[in-house]
Every structure is written in structure tokens, then in C-alpha cells.
Amino acid sequence: MSESDLEKRFTEARQKMVRQQVKRRGITHPLVLAAMETVPRHHFISPDLQYAAYDDGPLPIGSRQTISQPYIVALMTQLLNPEPDFRVLDVGTGSGYQAAILAEIVNEVIGIERIPELAEQAKERLQRLGYQNVTVHIADGSMGYAPDAPYDGIVVGAAAPAVPEPLIMQLAIGGRMIIPVGSSFEQVIQRVTRKSGSEIQVEYLTPVRFVPLIGKKGYDRDWL
Hints:
The protein is α/β, with parallel strands linked by helices. Helices cover about 30% and strands about 25% of the residues.
């Protein structure tokens, strides 16, 4: 099969994914849907798993980490309610897929990844795919990235035992953070809105299952 034929098949699979896995589950934000239809998810996983790139589930990306289920990526992005002029912090960048989805929508994305190998791979992948509005740093995601704060939005791709205080303080007033919080047995996506100073509003939304957010304000070890 030629490369063009293969890319055509991936495009058709991506469109089907959006119809059957994303729209049917209530994702309606037009910018989120457009991003999900645009970003080539198969380029964010290893070649031997590309056949499953648009399946309804997470996939391993190495270093005992995963790329989230497409619907969960779409859901967390929609919950953020991103706007084109936003600056967003992507905590736990991993393969770079969530960062790419955000980059299709917002002005600037700052990614944080604690595992150097994954961070370097994400940088190379995002650059190769033409995303000029994403910067990836190797750092402790539970501490955020203060030099570029404040952020209009923060998306956290790993579960924390509680909402990390540094992330709250790096939100702009009125900014929103989407973060799974809980133990290895039970987690819930929370939407945290910073009202003023340290005052926040917390909404408890969808049960999920994520890898742990490891760091000073997260967990001290993996669950595996």
C-alpha cells in the first residue's frame, strides 16, 4: 500500500472516530471537534501500534505511560472551553497528542513532561508536524511552570492526590484547570476555576482512570 493510500485510510479512521466515539458521547465544541478531526493521532504512537490509533481506548507510549482514549482527550479539552487567544499549560505532555489538540485551538501551549525521553520525542514530533506554538519543558508537572504563568487554562494528563497548589496559583484569575484527582482505585475529573487569589470553584465531573502525577505535589511513585 502506498503512503498516500495509507494516510487516506488513517483519515477515514479518524473521521469515523470523531463520529462514533466523540460526537455520540456529547462533544459539541466546534473547535474541539475540528481539532480531533485534524490531528493525526497515529503519528503520536509507535509504528507497531498505529493500526489501533483510532480505537476507543488508551495505548502505551513507553516509559510505562499512555496516550489517553480519544474521547477523554476531547472531553478534557471541551471542559476547558478553550478560546483562540488562550495560553494553556499541558501537564504530563507524554506523546504530545493533547498538546497538539490544544495547539489547533489556542494561541500558545506550554508542555511539561518529567520523563526526558518522552519530552524529547514529543518536541521532535510536534516540530515535525508543524506545531510552532508549542514549547515542551522537562520538569516536575506537579509544580507547573512558573516562568510562563499565568495561564488561561491548565490540562493535567495524570491523576493527583489533591489539586496541586502551584497549579492553582499559576492560573489567571478566571482561568480553568481540568485535572483528574484521586487514588489508584478511584479518580474523578475536576474543573477548577480560580476566582481570586486562592479562592477557587471546584466542579466534580467524570470518573476516569489515569496514571499517577508523580512529583513534589503529586504521588511519590508509580502505581504499577
